[in-house]
């Protein structure tokens, strides 16, 4: 018996009919996380619904998604209603979504948002911390998978635009659980080598799971602490990883990163040509200006009649010299008058003149003082003579010269009263020219003193 072989198309059509007649697949309620979302330019939406262990491709055509009140995106958990059928071209079964409602967000997307918020609060995204991308780099380090399409796009673009720059590929795992550690290690190697003035970090497009290595914190820290400026080019233009926010410059694709890393040779040539044309125009304009200036000078009166001009200038010079001489004479007179006035004030205020005046006043005061002393001495001498005359009149010796005597007892005490003496007392009577020793024979007391 001859075996009958089916074509792939026939088998696919058979399976599709099986799917289409199965009532359980006509009305499927499903929940999962959106991944690989693609909003086609015709309005259709294509994406993958997944959970921890399985995934299924899905499509929601424009006439169905037009009523959605939100825009689906990667990482979003949704509740969908649709039917399962086979897409014959690829022989794959997929879910044709008719209705969709959000059901929170996926775990990876949530982790992405949390890390993004944490790094933003630390200032890792601040534009002021971005390092300047060199305009003409000399040596570029390219961190990516050496076997991917991204490295070919980068190298092709760099060689086409700026072939004189050196490039070094630092291999890194850009997908899977080891991606984060491998990428951060590659960034550290590039900095340790200290030979690069620019780093391109990138890979091609993929799902959020494929790009997750560029969303890990270890990679974010390595980019932030890199001393060499980094251009991040991860996935497609619609993909935004944590690396893109921290890098000094983000490019939408690896090819875009190469275009931003190096200048275009054609553009440089065109720019140099513009500069050359501009420089030639400027030089020509300068030459024209100088020629016009030379022509004006040639046609000027000075060039045509130099002798007349010299005569005129000679006459002007004489006038100026005369004015200068008059000015000098006038100025000299003014200065002489000022000097004479100053000298007169100086002489009047000379210290010697003040000294002589002070000596004169001193002599005058000395003379007045001497006269005062002499007057006081004369007055005191006269006063002294008067007092001496008074003392002479009161001197007991002078009194005794007039016949008076003074008695003293044996003890030498003056007898002021006759009552002080007794009969037979020996007394001494002193006179002006001597003394008498006497004995009291009788005492006579004045009647009035008894």
Automatic annotation (TrEMBL):
Pfam families the UniProt entry points to: Exonuc_VII_L, tRNA_anti_2
Gene Ontology cellular component list: cytoplasm; exodeoxyribonuclease VII complex
Residues covered by the OB-fold nucleic acid binding domain: 6-101
Locations listed in the record: Cytoplasm
Transmembrane helix among keywords: no
Residues in Exonuclease VII large subunit C-terminal domain copies: 124-439
GO terms for MF: exodeoxyribonuclease VII activity; nucleic acid binding
HAMAP family registered for this protein in UniProt: Exonuc_7_L (MF_00378)
Assembly and binders: Heterooligomer composed of large and small subunits.
Name of protein: Exodeoxyribonuclease 7 large subunit
